[in-house]
Amino acid sequence: MEIVPELLTTPADIGWSNLVEGIDFKLFFASKETGRWTVLLRCQPGSFFPRHRHLGAGEYYVVKGKMEYRMGVALEGTYGYEPLDVIHEHTAFPEYTELYFTNHGPVVFLDDENNVVSILDHSLLTELSNG
Question: Where are the beta strands (DSSP E) in 13-121?
Answer without folding.
Answer: 17-20, 23-30, 36-43, 47-49, 52-54, 58-64, 66-69, 72-75, 79-82, 87-88, 91-93, 97-104, 107-110, 116-120
